[in-house]
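Bifunctional uridylyltransferase/uridylyl-removing enzyme
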Amino acid sequence: MHARAHAPSPLRQALKDRKAELVERFSTHGKIDVLLHGLCHAVDRSMREAWAEYGMPDDFALVAVGGYGRGELYPYSDVDILLLHRNAEDEALIQHVEPFIGFLWDIGVEIGSSVRTVDECISEAHADITVQTSLLESRLLAGNQALFDEFQQRFSADLDPLAFFRSKQLEIRQRHAKYQDTPYSLEPNCKESPGGLRDLQVILWMTKAAGLGNSWTELSARDLLTDRELKELRRNEQFLKGLRARLHLLARRRQDVLVFDLQTALAQSLGFEATTTKRASEQLMRRYYWAAKAVTQLNTVLLLNVEARLFPQTSGVTRVINERFVEKQGMIEIVDDGLYERHPNAILETFLLYEQVVGVKGLSARTLRALYNARESMNAQWRSDPENRRTFLEILQQPQGITHALRLMNQTSVLGRYLINFRRVVGQMQHDLYHVYTVDQHILMVVRNIRRFAVAEHTHEYPFCSQLIANFDRPWVLTIAALFHDIAKGRGGDHSTLGMVDARTFCTRHGISKEDTELIVWLVGEHLTMSTVAQKQDTTDPEVIRRFAEKVENERRLTALYLLTVADIRGTSPKVWNAWKGKLLEDLYRLTLQVLGGANPDPHSQLKTRKEEALGLLRLYTVPERAQEALWNTLDVAYFLRNDPADVAWQTRHLWRHVDSASPIVKARPSPIGEGLQVLVYVRDQVDLFARICGYFERKGLSILDAKVHTTSHGFALDSFLLTDPGLDTSYRDIINLVESELVSLLTKAEPLAEPNKGRLPRRSRSFPVTPRVDLRPDERGQYYLLSVSANDRTGLLYAVARVLARHGVSVRTARINTLGERVEDTFLLDGSRLQDSRLQIAVETELLEALEP
């Protein structure tokens, strides 16, 4: 008979005490292997005691599998077991197995279990590589030894090491793609991300399956690892294991992602202390990125070495490249292990060949290992060698392969050793809630984006950028500007100004012409300017365009800055770019180009042109001749300059019959610019109208990208909004009728404004709060006031701002809503008549700051 189904408290308490003792010892001494093996032994002991106390049948075997089978347990990891049996009847399984599993849960073991026969194990392993991997690391805990031996014998006989290797290779590729193929995200997964613990486990699974060894020591003994690589690998593995264990303990649950919320506590538990220039969390993450980078390098070397052992027939020389290098199955290989020590110039030549030799897709294990061991040769003398400078510039000037070459140079630490200031930003975090990559990865992403403009296969992404770069002489200057635009981040001071010094030094040392040097240095210094003008200033104001044109001076500079700006914004975060920002930048480019070409930005000629274009479109809608005049006569020049002719035509088509409408008119359509919804509101003006509309949109979860607010000469508000819904699963067409009817109803009732909802900050924003900032100042003519607000984004924020303005009777003329990841930087043009009262101005600013507080 088996024991009673409820857990006896002594077993549960004993396991709890053992775990607590091990954790306490780890907190004191920090020895990670003692903790992982100790936790495993503690659970082993409880398992065996439970097996004996529960009285399981003799023809069953209790087997540890997966990480638990490997003999390692993290504080909150699942305990994976296999209950092996010889074709037991269903009734017997129900009678014995289910109560036993429940019993294990009761004594505090979080079980992941499977119940199979040997045949079922073999069948499942065939069907699922994950099951096969889990069974590869099996260990008998209790029960029938003969049955377990039979399972192991049949599993080993059935395992195909070559097929297993190929499957694991594909699995690695899929897993890395899931994490954007980079260890450098700001919240990496220390187990699954590239350079994480899983990369190391995969190697040992492959070598175990192939009979090449079960540990790093065994791999070293078989010459798959050098002594130096073995030492580096162990050091970084220990760090990652310790990190993961501490994460579990801090979160008090299974936690493998280095979330912002835990980074500071984690850093402090490892002894990192904040300095005047760096947070403790930044120092920790830098250490993590260096470890992940080393693991990535060593992992690549090992994978290639294991592949060469498993597939010796495919590892021969394919062709001779020159007297120093050959190609082996698409990989560049050095012909002599001591090449880089004797001829350091060959280091950069490797990457130039990688770009130039058709069909090459990487570097061989021998080459990677030699680069890894040649780091001492990459010194000041090597950096200042004229031949190396020529080679590096040539790498940047190649027609193709630049992005891949630079990424490979970064992975192998060559790029940071050649450009010392680039080395300083490797693993440098950016706490601006805007960038989602470290500085070095962002820089390489911007280089990639610029290069993609010139690649035929990507011309559909940004046709205008591709058209511009195709006509741009010496496009490699853009690559250099991209490489230096953020290189001075984290040093203190203005990174644009410091970066200009670095860029000029580089250009001088590499013999770049004065003209190209001046362009590169200027681009680094001004790389944020175009984005700021397009997103924060009124580009319908001829004076804004004229000032910007004076700054850029000529068409080459304008084109270069435009291309760099698009590439830069695209390289910050997948969430930051949208079609609306693209249109703002393109409009600014085209308007500035006209001024640089000698055109004088004359509002009257623009007004005439826009009206004529709008009239042409209205004729297509069969609007009667001169029908638009009643509406247009009530609108000022600013309305026509701020709206595209297509928008003017669309709005006129819906409003020409309703110029003096007693009830609100609301029309919506899918945005003509990318994803989103465009909404037109026409109603008799009221002070709190903008706040009322913002409140409705925010309740609906619609984010306002842009708002244009106009007041007709006879007291009607003609407002236009561009909206998006990040969580919308269906088409925007599906919500058009709903928005139109609900907004008309809301504006008809004119109920008092509701209290703003002070929504919770998103998790990342709570970790890195932005100090709310309000800047209110008159424009040059004193007719309007410009209000800039900066804060962490959250639900209800825009409504809170609009409500403060409404309460003080301040009218909004235009609103430019700029969301940068989890941060907002919004700009409003306000009617200046009331704000000339300084006391009111102070009251508005004070209340706005209160409203921006989360």
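thats it. The domain at 316-418 is CATH 1.10.110.30 (Hydrophobic Seed Protein). Residues 22 and 603 are 77 Å apart (CA to CA). bye
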